[in-house]
Amino acid sequence: MKKFLFPILAVVLALSLGTTGAFAAVSSTQDGDVCGPDISSYTTRVYIIDNSASKIDANPVIATAPTNVTLHMYESDTETRVFNEKQNVLVTGLAYDGSTYTGNVDSHLIHQEPTMGEPGIPTNPITDAMRGRGCISFATNIIGVITSDSLLDASDSVLGLSTTTYPAGQVNRGLEMGSDRRYQDIILVDGNTIRIDLQSAEVMDQIRVLTEPVDPDIAVEKTADSTSALEGGTITYTYTVTNTGNVPLSNVTVTDPDVDTGPTYGSGDTNTDGVLDLTETWVYTAEYTVPWFTAGPVENTGTANADYDSAPVGPVTDDESVDILHNPAVELTKVGPDPIGYFETVDALYTYTVENTGDCSLDVTLTDSMIAELGDPAGDANTNELLDPDEIWTYTVGEELICEGDTMTIFTNTAIVVGEDVLETQVWDMACWNVVVFQWQPRTIGYWGNWDNHYSQDEWDSIRLEAIENSPNIEALAAALTNGELWNDWYGEGTVHDFLLGPPPKLNGTAKAEFLMEKQFLAAWLNVKAYEDWVNDSFISGFTGSGDAAMDLNATVYLSGDAATLFGGEEVTVMDILTTIEDNKGTWYDSELSGNFKTAQEVLDRMNNAEDNNYEAFMDPDFDPDECSTCLLVGDWALVYNDTINHSMSITTQNPDGTFSGTGAYATPPPPYTWDVTGTVTDSTVSMTIDYDQQVGGEDYSVSLTGTMSDCDTMNGTATDSKANSYTWTATRT
């Protein structure tokens, strides 16, 4: 047989590492119109590797049996079989086309078996050999084609598979072509496809095809939609899967045990065949909700797996780390009762509202200066016992206030909330509520008009006589009131009940305005005299009395507008108002709808009806019920002695009773000193003691400081140390 030989170089073949994976299935088609374009369009010429040098026979044998793929060529009685042989064989210096090839290959034997004549022993090699044209495609690109007899032994221990029985007895191994053809026109290679084009003058029994080793591989890249996230927020992960090998992959899976949903395939399978081709990139997504109270970073791993020819490929992994942001903040508000009048005890109901205004969950502690047990809050929607962002907790607590004395009392209590995040960073807030209790309660015209519903005749006589005798303004009424009979003609006929409760007599203008004012005036005097008898214990005829029907004559009344002008100021006493009316009413002339009588009547009405209007007449307009008189000192401060000696101070805890503690340092000059501080803040007064951790001059050292808060960010005062040195000091919040 004629062989097409090229310059022969020294050849050494060796086997490297065995297999890296199973062979891919070999596909075939018949006829040039089916298997590819016209021969002339093939751009990659075959490397006809032709060498007869000696081989190394001691290489190990692949255990996997070859694949038998049948290719029917033009003539129906001729078939070609393809055997997969060895994988990942290292060939060194294999000569071809004037050059050499060194590298790893997979080997495949293409065997043509004519069916005419005796099987395996053709009677006419020319007419019985394969003819026609067809294509055979391999899983990977073709490196070269061997046509030389010496390299086509079926038992070739390097490239052949010695444990497999190949069709034998072929006399026309290799390739023989007609005199008018070139080998490049008979066997053409394009990528992973070999095209064989035989005519009547060509013969091919066996050739060996060397392909790139099958190297299935997969890669996954995991990314997050952000480098940082918040507790309770959602992280979206993207998994990008690529085929980094040289063969398509099936059964691709992506897993991630640390996500809530997914990973779910999204896109990339362009031909929708369920196979990850070399040119495809598949994308998966998953979501993860960051749990509350997570320190971070959130770290998890995506894993990709696949199969190639039923053999596993992978797993491959990629990690992603997302930082968790923490900006803790908390806000506390407290609401209690409105100003109230006389009670021996008051069941005050307080409501505390704690809101997380930061972006991370908090472990919350709430304390109060007056109430030890605050109970459990409402509002923990997810019952995780953490105050989550935008979550609002509400505590509702009752407290009994014990009322003592006979003047106005302000019950002030202070609440402090501490929120601590997962990183143990603390945030603080303070809220206060001031309950004003007037230890006396004025009574109205209706109350005094129905005196017999409240007092005995003797008790009533004692209090009204006190009122009359001390009020020159109503001396003219003394006889009628004393006798309990008629009023004088100016007021018309009737009893004290009629005067206070009945409709006014038929009066107009100034007379009517004065009459209406006089009713309120009398009720005010009765309130005042009842208060005096109560606090002085000067009751007559067994009148016990109490602050339940009384008005402190020294209480301040807050006025504005015409009332302030009439009574000489915006802050006057009850006695000032009554005296002004007695001294000046004789000069007042006005209509029943406006003027001094009308103004005085309205002021007296506000005073007598204090119970119904939350003591509005007696409340300072500037009073703020939720104002804290004590500052929250928790935080960092710059402490300076004598304007030159600089210390740093950090107040780390504060209790509702005003006690606090912290630490500090004095860094320069060396050596550095550290110290602990304890103290108390009450209203605007602050006192603290600093105890140094190191001795100074061989002795324990401490400093006592007292001063005032000019505002909640600045305090100053004087100090004395344990060595009897005196200093001035200023602390400013940093």
Give an overview in words.
The protein is 14% helix and 39% strand. The protein is mainly β and 734 residues long. The protein has five domains: 12-211, no CATH class; 218-325, Immunoglobulins (Immunoglobulin-like, Sandwich); 334-422, no CATH class; 445-618, no CATH class; 635-733, Lipocalin (Beta Barrel), CATH 2.40.128. Strands 1, 3, 4, 5, 6, 7, 9, 10 and 13 form a nine-stranded mixed beta sheet that branches. An eight-stranded antiparallel β-barrel has the order 31-32-33-34-35-36-37-38. A five-stranded mixed beta sheet has the order 15-22-21-17-19, with no helix packed on it. Mean pLDDT is 78; it is low at 1-22, 36-77, 115-130, 162-172, 475-494 and 539-543.
Q: Average pLDDT across residues? A: 78
Number of helices: 11
- Low-pLDDT runs of 5+ residues are 1-22, 36-77, 115-130, 162-172, 475-494, 539-543
**DSSP strand content:** 35-45%
Number of domains: 5
Measured as a percent range, the helix fraction is 10-25%
* Rg: 53 Å
Largest beta-sheet characterization: 9 strands, mixed
The separation of the N and C termini measures 100 Å
Approximate shape: elongated
Secondary-structure class? mainly beta
* Strand element count: 38
Brief synopsis:
It is built from 11 helices and 38 strands.
Write the layout of secondary structure elements.
Elements: E1 12-13, E2 27-30, H1 32-35, E3 48-49, E4 68-72, E5 78-84, E6 89-96, E7 99-114, H2 125-128, E8 132-137, E9 142-146, E10 174-176, H3 183-186, E11 187-190, E12 193-198, E13 203-211, E14 218-224, E15 228-230, E16 234-243, E17 249-255, E18 261-267, E19 275-276, E20 281-289, E21 298-308, E22 311-325, E23 330-335, E24 345-356, E25 363-368, E26 392-402, E27 408-420, E28 426-438, H4 445-449, H5 457-469, H6 478-483, H7 496-501, H8 509-536, E29 556-558, H9 561-567, E30 571-573, H10 574-584, H11 596-608, E31 635-641, E32 645-654, E33 659-666, E34 673-682, E35 685-692, E36 702-711, E37 714-721, E38 726-733
